[in-house]
Design goal:
Four copies of one chain form a homotetramer.
Chain A (H helix, E strand, L loop, with lengths): L9 H10 L15 H10 L11 H9 L7 E4 L6 H10 L3 E5 L6 H14 L3 E4 L6 H11 L6 E9 L13 H6 L2 H4 L4 H17 L3 E9 L10 E8 L4 E7 L8 E8 L2 E6 L5 E6 L2 E7 L7 H4 L12 H17 L5 H8 L3 H20 L4 E2 L3
Parallel strand pairs in A: 1-2, 2-3, 4-7
Antiparallel strand pairs in A: 4-8, 5-6, 5-12, 6-7, 8-9, 9-10, 10-11
Helix pairs in contact in A: 1-11, 4-5, 5-13, 6-9, 9-13, 11-12
């Protein structure tokens, strides 16, 4: 693991998720550039002192030589380090599991895509919400045509935790997210907008072809956007809207996907992730429940508990890790292809960075619609 | 009543709502231009044959001369007749209660505004959702600053009933709504977009200052829009999004308002109208329930039943009629001003037609943002 | 109307409901035994002074002689007057629409049953919740075997409005409900327990065969029960539980029915009456929505608005009145039988009073189970 | 771990929960009495072959002599083995974490209580639902008097998975639960009724003083109860009802607690565990959300993710394990007392077995109320 020292929110979540099924173990890390902080973090994760490094390149160098070397590197740093750490890992021959977004800019994303291609190593992005079983069920349904042709999409991701100027208080999570040097081009759009964008493309099976964006910095003095509203067209011409906010006061982590086809609509809400709502034209509405017998066989493998026993974000995260671990262990040459079928990778990383960059361009110019290259 | 013969959805609703409190009685009507259909409609409403007219001008002419003349005219025709009927009523000295939208075009709305001003008669628009007590409570709260400065607005109105080409089957409601000659400039945006727009301005106390709209005709062969997605800015600079659809397959009548301020967010959903949700920063969420003691005194007068006994759309409608009847009966010179404080009138009619016209312009040009005059 | 003067909750609701469809008109009443209060109530209902009587017998006597006499009497007094007023009405040849419970005691209910039989007049009880369209849909489904054999029933009715000693403050509704001389044998069980009991039998198509009850007076100084918990067996042996309370602090009007069969469960909640939830074994859950095309044809006639436009208690009430009016007008000899098929009458009145009486007996003896005669 | 071989539902859940925070590691087990099955289970848990025993006594004997011996034994067998395994563990000097119920009969529970007392070792019962943070918040609130005096309690636990005769198909979970020799005295009441009972006492701070129970075997041929409805009185005289079912067709794992005091009601639903609803008299309802700042400090330590990121049953389970691990490691003499303050132990084990035994007695006799000793 690179990153994840005290104060990190996502580091411990990666650890829990990775280890949940007993098939992955966190054994080494460069948790902080401060040797003492890294050592302390290592101890908190139960890692021997010698494998708690203060420098990720040192970690890779030394781990590479061990018999019991790490199999892959997990990146949980602020955004600006995603690229250099990922490149170093690939160059040292390690697969990469990276937190989103892939990189801080689109240009960096292309560079990383090239490196992944060149090394033929596995690269996965924790677009966590794609690990929820019912999101995967929705994806299967939508792609199999259960809704008919997709005609409209609404995706929302709203949070309220940046309603105040939290960064001014020194809050670690808020500080780096609101600093362009660490967060990159996008504020809310880079932090959570990419989740919304990815979820839409992941489930619908369509690409966003055009957008018209309005990004705002609502809280005074904030350099990056904290509220984003986007009109969009899918590649089949269907209209839609995507809106994300980190100043939606009182909202928690309100990610919603609404997808409408010719026959009905599909509705999923991250805060109640164990239900998938389907509204049909001329027929009663349906609710699919987590772990039910009637779900697709592949979906059912994504549950660890029987019906009515809530599973949450850690399990969704763990599904991504489990799929990644299966690919890492696989000896078959198509492991990477199989993985990329279900787990977002560098392709989705480039897509989402394209979205961020084009949204910033569209919003700045106030000139209306801009296209997204396929 | 003008309009409302067999096949009308909204005519009988107006009748029920108007008469609910026992202070208004439907006694005359020009329900259809077909004398026989008008007579039948009159009979179904319990009206004497002599007062079931086939022509609204004849109705006004003859009613004006009766001792027991009607006090006001209620307009429930397709949109293109709203203006001529309203003008005729005002000219004959009758107050007007009109179904929305005020007129078929913005130009017509200005003409009507002028006539209302000239005659000093009462004119109210049944933006029905403003009659829900908890919408009025939300309005009071937002305007009194309970949320702090408004920072973001989301308003959604989605229906699925036009997912198929219902107009091709001869369905009366669908036929006129999809015919520009009868519906006017806007399809979904004129039919339900104006509700969403009005609700936003009504509750927030802010005007929409700029919009950037995308209107689509999703169902093949449809001349008017059936899906609309709009970025917006309030007059205080707050960003927002408004989206409406009549091809959101499986949705029923899904009108939602989400308003975020500095302190918290306010959420109201028309399909569960007896709850008002408030999410606060740093405090537990609250739900206000219909008919509760802790609501504003004026709100409590809008309920007819105690807590937990659901009231619905007819009661919301009836609140508007009751407020209108109070103004009609009032001898005080400020009755019109008092009414316009709580019940939308021609000012809101002009606002909403401006919105429709500007949205059509913005969408056609694909040129980004357009301003709305105050 | 007998009863319903100022301070009455249910009188105005009966008026609104009766008149909602324009086929019934309130034209006379003995609203109070105080002539002045009766006259004032009459005026508030828009009734001519001469038909606002101070005495129900006088009303019946005088109305009987009018050309435009009333067709039926509606009883909205406290419980202890239900029997004498109903008997007088029947004796004067008027049909009767009575608020629940039928009478104050079981003995009285038998007497009334005898009078109804003897006069062959129509008698209906406003077990209001049976007027909700989705309750009627549930009834049809359950009786048609959609759930398979019924195996378990849970019915709950909880309110919190008597959590304090409201009767000590002179609150009119609370005073008579807590006075055995006016309310009869039961407190909460007579006031709302009978609704719960009736709803269970109405929907399930089964009779309650045995009960074991625990009635409490939780608020100090209260003579009648304010909280009741009852074990039960249906006539097919299925177990169940019924619990009602008026000291469930914070609850509003929380009536719920849960019915389980071999194939699935059916769930209806009065505070969200426009949804009917069905959970199936091995299949996705379903939600039936008000006014949907897929409901039974008879159910669809019970709606006045399209999908997604909430209807509430007044409309449920109005359905009962409308069915009653149809029977009153019918010239067919089986009108009474047809009515009793869908609207509760004296049979259900006797059933519910039997339930109250047996529950009181069971609770007092603490001796376990008691049977209910068929 | 004793038990938990292939086919076990709860074994893997214990493993995940115990290891979630990285402070406990599963290192040895007697997973099955079949050596091969035990070895395979061990391998699936990542345990070395030499520590996958076929006999729990052998495990304890051999582990006791190791330098790196286990610290405690976790029991996940069918109910009839709970006592012998727990006794053996205590005799070998190991602390015990046992799945519920404590034992198969009340007599056994007393024996176990005596052994715990004698050895002064730690003993905890995974009444899992007590590990949910908002259940603990509810407990603090109720005990601190936030609701005022408790006046009514409703607790429901309904499942539908035994609606068919699943045991006849050889389904492992169903077979042992429906076999008195393995499950003990109670069917549904022993399996999930004890959860409901414990949750009620845990949160309310009151003991159940009297019950009147009705236990049924609804599915033909079933020896033990599969549906139970119970009237109850708390030790302060407050009435209540507890009902559990495993034949509530279509229900998943529907555990609900409703607690009413003088000031308001508290509502928690296991299938949406990250919300705690509070309805107050005369004030807006409140919802407390998981991980919110305004929760009690101790509650906040029970979350691993920020607001809006769902946590589920595994995390609730893990909280119990974490509290247990803290006590195991503690050198302070009051560790056991501190643990028993928050985590159910043998005292609650005896209470719940008393409840099962008394419920069976009450139901068989049909003689009404029976007391529960303090």
């Amino acid at each position: 693991m690179v990153g994840g020292a005290a104060g990190s929110f996502i580091g411990p979540v990666h650890r829990m998720a990775a280890e949940l099924d007993g098939v992955i173990e966190l054994v080494a890390g460069a948790f902080s550039q401060d040797p003492e902080r890294s050592r302390q973090a290592g101890a908190s994760y139960g890692i021997s002192a010698e494998r708690a490094y203060a420098n990720y390149e040192e970690m890779m160098e030394r781990e590479r030589k061990r018999q019991d070397a790490i199999d892959f590197v997990c990146i949980v740093t602020p955004n600006h380090l995603h690229l250099p750490v990922a490149l170093a890992a690939l160059e040292h021959g390690f697969h990469v599991m990276s937190d989103k977004p892939a990189t801080a800019t689109l240009e960096e994303a292309y560079a990383l895509q090239e490196a992944v291609r060149r090394t033929s190593l596995l690269y996965a992005l924790t677009f966590t919400y794609t690990g929820y079983p019912l999101v995967r069920e929705a994806r299967q349904m939508a792609r199999a045509g259960a809704l008919g042709k997709i005609r409209k999409a609404v995706v929302q991701y709203s949070q309220g935790w940046l309603s105040g100027s939290l960064e001014a208080t020194g809050h670690k999570q808020a500080v780096w997210r609101s600093d362009p040097a660490q967060a990159g081009l996008g504020g809310a759009i880079g932090d959570i907008g990419v989740h919304a964008f990815n979820l839409l493309e992941y489930v619908s099976g369509h690409r966003v072809a055009e957008i018209c964006a309005d990004l705002s910095s609502v809280v005074a003095g904030r350099a990056l956007d904290d509220d984003c509203n986007v009109l969009l067209k899918l590649d089949n011409g269907a209209p839609g809207v995507l809106f994300v906010s980190q100043i939606a006061a009182g909202d928690r982590n309100d990610l919603q996907l609404h997808l409408y086809g010719e026959k009905g609509g599909l509705h999923w809400w991250q805060e109640d992730p164990n239900r998938l709502e389907l509204n049909w034209i001329g027929k009663p509405s349906q609710t699919l429940h987590a772990a039910a017998d009637y779900l697709a066989p592949s979906t059912r493998l994504d549950f660890r508990l029987p019906m009515g026993h809530p599973e949450g974000l850690v399990e969704a995260f763990a599904n991504i890790y489990r799929d990644f671990a299966v690919a890492v262990r696989s000896r078959f040459s198509d492991a990477a292809a199989q993985l990329s079928d279900i787990v977002p990778g560098i392709r989705e990383g480039v897509r989402s960075m394209t979205f961020v960059e084009r949204a910033v361009v569209s919003s700045r110019s106030r000139a209306g619609w801009v296209g997204l290259p396929r």
